[in-house]
Amino acid sequence: MQDHSQSLLADGIDQCADSSFADTLRAQVCSKNTLSFLMEAHDGLSATIAQRAGFKGLWASGRSIASSLGYRDANEASWGQLVDAVERIVDSGQLPVLVDGDGGFGNFNNARLLARKLHQRGAAGVTLEDNCFPKINSFVGDRHPLADIDEFSGRLRAVKDTVADDLVLVARIEALIAGHGLYEAISRAHAYAEAGADAILIHSRMSSADEILSFTRTWQNKLPVVVVPTTYYRTPTSEYCRARISTVIWANHSMRAALASMRQVCDRIFADQNATDVEPDIATLDDVFNMINYKELASAEALYLHPDKLRQ
Ligand code: SPV
Ligand code: MG
Question: Which of 5, 59, 102, 139 is 20 to 30 A from residue 83's alpha carbon, by CA?
């Protein structure tokens, strides 16, 4: 978390219990005084790496989970595959996880089922975007059809009625992405606040944060605002503090890092027909064992498989 008046990273919630994940995420996402960061995870390993880096919350990215499965971010991965990935992210990261629930995989009924299943698997929150099923990633194509405001508000209300405060509910507005402008985005924000959203995610595909900052000026923090600076990554973080944005999501950086790194290593081993040169550039086996806590397994084996030896 970052205090809006300072520029220091502060605060920390270590190893919170499962039942408090939603409360912890709520404290981050719904704070109007501090800026929080959520780091993308798409599997157990990326969740562990983010947690060890010091992040206090995770974003289970639809695009990154789909990419890691070899799918396009177009609802090709099923909601069942999403909840399975989320379970590994929650277990491995031991951090509150805000899940990218796309549009909820259908109408109000699919959305509330998804939310219930995500809660059962330990998620702390879900983001629903006002797209039609099947969605397509916000950076692919132009002028995506938006969901009808009332119909989408029904999806939000159904989720709220199903999971109440057990999941943080973030309503994501795609109006700017679809080229509809500020007025449409603000009307949708009001409707989604009325429908019970805990926070608003306003998304943009511009290379500057200008339209996001116009939104926050007009919206005046009626609900906390979450942003995803994938394309406007050059914006200084102090701008988000000044705009009193509650949460920044680094939405796809681990997946993109993995892609670049795996491709480079595969290309080199294929070209060299030998792995000698790549060895210094990749994680050691000990690094892998350490990251996934093999030590704990050895201690548990001593305790449960060979208790006699412990007594000697
Ligand atoms: C995701 O991470 O899947 C997102 C964010 O929805 S973005 O891809 O930037 O739209
Ligand atoms: Mg997504």
Answer: 139
Q: Helices marked H in 141-219 — which ranges?
A: 149-163, 182-194, 210-219
Is 73 a residue of the active site?
yes
Q: Which pLDDT tens digit goes with each residue over 25-74? A: 999 999 878 999 999 999 999 999 999 999 999 999 999 999 999 999 99
Residue 252 C-alpha to ligand 1 middle, in angstroms? 7
Residue to probe by mutation, ligand 1, list 230, 231, 248, 259, most atoms within 8 Å of CB: 230
Q: Using CA atoms of 148, 151, 155, 156 in order, give the dihedral in degrees to the nearest 10.
A: 70
Residue 100 three-state SS: strand
Site residues for ligand 1, CB cut-off 6 Å = 61-64, 73, 100, 137-138, 228, 230, 251-252
Domains in the chain: how many in total? 1
193 lies in which domain range?
Answer: 17-252
Question: 43, 73, 102, 130: which is the annotated catalytic residue?
Answer: 73
Ligand nearest to the CA of 67: 1
Give me the CATH number covering residue 198: 3.20.20.60
Q: How far apart are CA 193 and CA 171, in angstroms?
A: 8
Q: Which atom of ligand 1 is nearest to the CA of 127?
A: 6
State which amino acid sits at residue 129: E
Q: What is the pLDDT of residues 85-99, one digit of tens each?
A: 999 999 998 999 999
- Say if 151 falls within a structural domain: yes
Strand 125-129 with 168-173, pairing:
parallel
On whether residue 89 sits in a domain, the answer given is yes
Examine residue 218 and state whether it is found in any structural domain, yes or no.
yes
Calculate how far, in angstroms, residue 157's C-alpha sits from the geometric centre of ligand 1: 23
